Amino acid sequence: QVQLVESGGGLVQPGGSLRLSCVASQFTFRVYNMNWYRQAPGKERELVATISGSGGTTNYADSVKGRFTISRDNARSTLYLQMNSLKPEDTAVYYCRLYGTGGVFWGQGTQVTVSS
Question: 93 and 20 in contact (C-beta within 8 Å)?
């Protein structure tokens, strides 16, 4: 069974930084594109960033472009999201997602709160 376990969330002041991690298991991590999504209270879940299996191609939502960086370590089966210049509107639960041949799989999420 696919497992995705996020960590790294927390409370940070505006302008601060956090790095999220997502450890993947029970599938061939390097083969698949991976995503970070987020869901703020009362809002729909939205796509934040995508990375190809090799890590060579990345895409970002306009709202995070230039501030967030998605990356991966295929040797460790780990996905990352480096978040800089955080804003209160970045407050949300962040999820990693796999869209694989067996379906769509989500982690349990990690809470990020940006507040002074």
Answer: no
Cβ contact 93:6 at 8 Å: no
Distance (Å, whole) CA 67 – CA 24: 24
Does the pLDDT value for residue 100 go beyond 90? no
The CA angle 114-10-59, to the nearest 5 degrees, is 70
| Structure tokens belonging to residue 12 | 């940070």
Contacts of 1 (CB under 8 A, 6+ apart): 26
The percent of residues in the chain predicted with pLDDT above 70, rounded, is 100
How far, in Å, CA of 48 to CA of 94, rounded? Answer: 9
Mean pLDDT across 33-47 = 97
